[in-house]
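[Q] Does anyone have a clean structure-token version of this?
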Amino acid sequence: MRKPDRQTLFLGTVTVASIIVITYLTLFYNNGKAGAPNPITPTATKKNNPINHRRAYQWLEKICELGPRPSGSAAMASQQRMLGEHFKQLGGTTFLQTFDYPHPQKKDAIVSLANLVVHWHPDRTERILLCAHYDTRPFPVRDPKRPKGIFIGANDGASGTAVLAELAHFMTEIPPPYGVDFVLFDAEEFVFQERRDPFFLGSEYFSKQYLRHPPAHRYRCAVLLDMVGDRELQIYPEQNSLKSIATRQLVRDIWSTAQQLGVKEFIHQRGHEIQDDHIKLMEIARIPACDIIDFDYPRPGQEFSQLYWHTEADTPDKCSGESLAKVGWVVLEWLRRLR
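[A] Here you go.
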């Protein structure tokens, strides 16, 4: 993803109390629209979390053991085979949505790209889209010492993928009326020069295909998981995810679910404005989409030069299975209660 265009600034003389009240009303007023989750029992506690945090973290480690996974690489192909087999074993219907693109660095060369798509309950025509990107940037361009070094992408690439790999254990249990699709986007950041090379090639291709060749099903909404493994997890509503009535409702529903579960890492105030795969889903495919992302990696308030983001330091030891499990739990419980 691209860095935020700006951070939210609270200007003027608005009091802290006013901010809390306004934020609460904005995020948690439920207007009773169809598709909102059913109420969750207030007795829910973290002990109820069915997500296996060890298994989720093992997936993150297993993905990172493949090494850097830029688009078109042998490691990416290995990842596709490994994940495809995993989803099939758990009852998913999988396929690779392939397309070609000119290689940004190699003249007259073509790179083969592929989104990995998984259908759960493919007979259901009303569907929910859960997605992440599974490629890594070619180089750790923000690393202060080795910007052309090795980029493992534990949080930025593997974390969202690991959550989906763990959620796959529960997808056959999702009750009607909705089916669920996973999409792992390729070439989210197959970028060698930021001002020259385009981002989000996989989500752009997926969105255009959905628009040009409408399937028999319809996506009610989409949830993007990106950078959700941080040990110091803090997830704020992303600003582009709040720009329409439908996406604001989606954010309210998910953050309300987290509140009712006692997952305090979902924080009820606006965060960064992020350019990410959800933008293509909204702008091209017209699918209401939100981005669940902790961009402050490792902690809020640091300058970009101090972050692990896009550096060699983005390795599994900076991530946590507990963080993956909390995000997975919120998404799973939100899905279970959709009507």
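[Q] Thanks! Anything notable?
[A] The chain has a mean pLDDT of 89.
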